[in-house]
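Internal tracking record. Fields below are filled automatically when a chain is submitted to the structure queue. Please do not edit lines marked as system-generated. If the sequence contains nonstandard residues, flag them in the REMARKS field before resubmitting.
Queue: standard
Priority: normal
Entity type: single polypeptide chain
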Amino acid sequence: FLKSCFIFKIKVTMSLDEDARWLEWVTKQFESIAGDDKEIDLDEFKTALKVKESFFAERFFALFDSDGSSSISLDELLKALDLLIHGNETDKLNFLFQVYDVDGSGSIDPDELRTVLKSCLRESAISLPEEKLDDLTLALFESADKDNSGSITFEELKAELENFPEVMENLTISAANWLKPPDLDQKKRQTPRYLTRAYWHNNSRKLLFLCVYACLSLLLFIGAMLQHSHGGAWYMVAKGCGQCLNFNCTFVMVLMLRRCLTWLRATWVVRILPLDQNILLHQIVGYAILCYTLVHTTAHVFNFVQLSEKSEYSLWEFLLTTRPGIGWVKGTASVTGVVLQVVICLMVLCSSTFVRRSGHFEVFYWSHLSYVWVWSLLMVHCANFWKWFVVPGLVFLLEKIVGIAVSRMGSLYIVEVNLLPSKVTHLVIKRPQFFHFKPGDYIYINIPVIAKYEWHPFTISSAPEQSDSLWLHIRSMGQWTNRLYEYFRQPESQTVSPKRLTTSLRNRRQVMKDLDVVFVCQCYIDGPYGTPTRQIFASEHAVLIGAGIGITPFASILQSIIYRRRKQNCPNCNYSWCENIKDSEMKLRKVDFIWINRDQKSFEWFVSLLTKLEMDQADEEPEGRFLEMHMYMTSALSKNDMKAIGLQMALDLLAKKEKRDSITGLRTRTQPGRPEWGKVFQKVSEEKKGKVHVFYCGAPALAKVIKAQCEHFGFNFYKENF
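SYSTEM-GENERATED OUTPUT FOLLOWS
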């Protein structure tokens, strides 16, 4: 009881502070917009409070304009807001009732309720048929109209709201939830996550590996410096950095031996080395190479300045010519060093996040192929580099030869193409006879008609048990992916049919719906390559989080689960249960699948798969449901937003009545807004189904948030990278 009182006191304090900041913000906005007349009209009101939906803006304005002058003074505004902030629960409920009571009759009729819900749908970017809007209106109206009088009174609305305690809580905690401006959210001061005990515990393998890497680099640097101590300080620094470059320019290649890493993931080594962090480590080593080259070059320049004062050659001759005879191949060390410095700087620049994520993946792809020139120049530049390079280089070359041989061994064909909402291209490829992969693996694909020499990585979205085909879901975000989408969309422009384009290339023919177009589409694949999700079936409790098209690796996993779990039905009753097919790898006891999308149409990508998953779920299971799905739509107003209360109540009521969600058609109710990760993981922790492993694929910014929460709860976190 005392703990509950303490929590309530904290909430009240936070609410008062929030309200005070909000009131200050509203006053400041009012004064900046009202002008000399000290009053604001409807358009100025929308601008001041950043309320975009005209219906709610007009209703708020009408209620604030107590004298009916078609303008609001600061006193009128503050008086109304003071009622919302300091008023009791009844006062606030009465304000909500007046917003819904458009004609001011003292009751809400079905047409008024329909108008409110239609405005809520528009503001949440939800598109539903008019018939569905009518169903939502009737569901909420019939539930609230207790006496069947044909209208909802204040008492009836209050009684209905009491059936939704989360709504009542949001209504009473803070008035700022009514018209909350977007810039009120302030970040709380917290201990940096890198200094927390949980971070060091959950990242122990990576941190230990980095410590060993740093110590090895330091030893190489000091050893090379001592070995060349006769040449002066700058010469020693240059040689120390040079030795570190010998190691790093080889190690950066080892981290990208994909076939070797995929094989190692199936061994005990994965429990010691951070194989799932190979991309991050590759980036760290890449930046280390840039730093070493800059220091190496700078040290040599200062050394050449000193040498030029004592010899017949000038500084520029030392740097840009072969005359001084520095280097083991005809004095080319300086010239090759300058070229290497330029090439490495360009490689690092073109591999930056803003280049790769801004639709210019090809710039990163082609510039990174210059690694061949870097290694070739290093052979000429440094007499000892070949000793470091020979073994890893041979393994790398062998991997490339195997990759080319496998990819060109047989001609593959795309047998079906579906163009999905939000410019997603679904490719169905005829599966090679001896192609074996694990759920969540990815491949490189080359489609000559799109780009003859370009290979791009994409996650396989079909299950390994699906023997006849491979699925790829490709979001149009760059030049190559956009060309791919447009290539299959072009014939669509020849018809006025609004149907989704479905392309079939069976028997090397492409037959398009409503069109008569025939041509061949050939492709090549290289892979498969392993990812962190290979550990999914070795987990006890797995949480799969996909953001947008980041669902693709989990689509493969979820389909594989269908194949590995057989639903059984009792012939004498409706009871059903699930049995795991005997599998030594299968240790899963519980799976939570979370899919976050911005808009409604994105759910159409895998709605048929998710529907099948729901149908294959047993009605009752001894230890609770094996698979739970959670859908979130970020464009929809959250339940914390008072403009969404009516809509969310109606959606809940209709979902219970129809046994399906109005937005996706699934049994799982789509939640508005973003997940509250603290509450989500708290619930997962309380289930106690075993060690929790969280797998994420999506935007890097969200990954940081989820990883921080995982560290707090002691969950293992894995992020898809390639």
